[in-house]
């Protein structure tokens, strides 16, 4: 029997071997799969698994030897539009309260039997703009991602609003890289 090749596929060690017999038997090629225990460093039970040789997020599998760099990335939401809405609403409220719009620039608007001046209209439109902008700013949260660099480029493989969750996965990746890169050690702690 002669071993033709060996490699890992998923959680199995695949060993291809061939044999040849004389006589009535033809040469035969077979693949033998044996279980290779992989040390699971982190799993959330659903979509993320970190072992000592790969990172799996949903259905994507990233081998550690293919990852050149990894880290935690903070993704800040774009707050410019809500900030400008708050600023515009605040300016309209100020103009309405201080009566900075002269009566001669815009005639009063008559809605049914109520007459609305330009200053009252600015105040009435400024308050909802200000409140809506403040609410949107208040509900905007940072997101956290695991960013990896591979031969294909950089990508965010996991994005979550929970920093602790992403930090746990990054810590597990750090441990995986330390076991992946460091040499094997014997019982006394010496490198073999």
Outline:
This protein has helices spanning 80-97, 118-139, 163-181, and strands at 2-9, 12-19, 28-35, 40-43, 48-51, 54-57, 60-63, 69-75, 109-111, 114-116, 143-150, 153-160.
Characteristic key phrases:
alpha+beta, four-stranded antiparallel beta sheet, disordered N terminus, single chain, 192 residues, three-stranded antiparallel beta sheet
Describe this structure in words.
Helix 1 (80-97) runs antiparallel to helix 2. The protein has helices spanning 80-97, 118-139, 163-181; strands spanning 2-9, 12-19, 28-35, 40-43, 48-51, 54-57, 60-63, 69-75, 109-111, 114-116, 143-150, 153-160. The protein has 3 helices and 12 strands; from the N terminus they run E-E-E-E-E-E-E-E-H-E-E-H-E-E-H. The strands form 4 sheets. It has a 4-stranded antiparallel beta sheet, covered by helices on one side. It is rod-shaped. With 192 residues, the chain is α+β, with helices and mostly antiparallel strands. Among the domains are: 1-37; 80-139, no CATH class.
Write the layout of secondary structure elements.
Layout: E1 2-9, E2 12-19, E3 28-35, E4 40-43, E5 48-51, E6 54-57, E7 60-63, E8 69-75, H1 80-97, E9 109-111, E10 114-116, H2 118-139, E11 143-150, E12 153-160, H3 163-181
Helix pairs in contact: 1-2
